[in-house]
Amino acid sequence: MPPAEPDQPCSLRLLWDEAVTTYDFGPGHPMDPTRLALTMRLVEAFGLPAAPGVSVAAAPPAGESTLALVHRPEYIEAVRRAAANPAALDERHGLGTEDNPAFPAIHTASALIAGQSVGAAEAVWSGAATHAVNFAGGLHHAMPGRASGFCIYNDAALAIARLLELGAERVLYVDVDVHHGDGVQQAFWDDPRVLTVSLHEHPSTLFPQTGWSTETGGEGAPGSAANLPLPAGTGDAGWLRAFHALVPELVAGFAPQVIVSQHGADTHLEDPLAHLAVTLDAQRVVAHSLHALAHRHCGGRWVALGGGGYAVVDVVPRSWTHLVATAAGRPLDPRAETPEEWRAEVYRRTTQQAPLRMTDGRAPQWRDFEDGYDPGDRLDQAILAARRAVFPQHGLLA
């Protein structure tokens, strides 16, 4: 079962600037910025910005020197060129492609999202807030010199780099997006100060075809990466079993000063781009678990980001509203009805009917890995492979 909810009070900095919705690859692209606007409207409809201990702020866009903490100067210049000439194809830098079409705001919108994640990291490290959330962030595929997988600037890696610049000595990154957190792993592959942990659909069935359990860090930082690839079709019980078999022990062994997490909602069974079968209710359990782990192991310091998620109406806004509510220390009753004004806004923007409740109607249960292992089960095989690959490097028993 997940760690108990913390007794300590929480303060939350919610990073939001309406202009993040200009991160828009155009009609028909899966990364629809409507999902961001609808999430913020649902957060507002539940009154979370006005809750005690919650502040909403917009950070400035990440500047050149900040972007250069992760990205090469020639790549940043390529993004600027793409903004000036969106019709051009730049395959070398992954720009103008089907996944990453260029658009006039490609640099400004991407830098703005990155700035919100950097601002979230600064707020948590300085003590201005216990937790910080930027659900517009989590663009974890961007590489130092190349766009990838709908991601232009890697705000998650930039947030971690900023924490290191501010003096953090141990940062734990946990990625529960359905896709492997390859860009963040790449950025810190040889840095023993950062442990990247990713649970994702198996690379044999999903982009970016990386994230094997044998990927455990560079020569200078053995054990700096942990990967648990999950069989296609994994549902709530298996997903939660895998998370709790890997993450809590690594948190305890690594003893981070701060946790940065990426909460892509595309693990959901309704997501059109992947093949897991997780529900909103299990996603909420993982958010609660990370909240409790942050309080237990690093004084509550927790930076939570969004990520993928392409069921724009039914899944993403509810999943990330639960994330915000959890970080505010005011978790929502999953049986709560979605506010009527939000449903009206959904219809106005999309002509779709909004979900009526904050739940998929499930009460997820799972069996702890310590209670028994089935050598014939593909999920248990994957869990054991991940633990055997990385646990010994942190002094843990697999």
Automatic annotation (TrEMBL):
Domain of life: Bacteria
Domain (Histone deacetylase): residue spans on this chain: 29-326
Gene3D superfamilies named among the record's database cross-references: Histone deacetylase domain (3.40.800.20)
Keywords: Acetoin catabolism
Pathway terms, separated by semicolons: Ketone degradation; acetoin degradation
Family: Belongs to the histone deacetylase family.
PANTHER family noted in UniProt: HISTONE DEACETYLASE HDAC1 (PTHR10625:SF10), HISTONE DEACETYLASE HDAC1-RELATED (PTHR10625)
Protein name per UniProt: Acetoin utilization protein AcuC
Organism per entry: Kitasatospora nipponensis
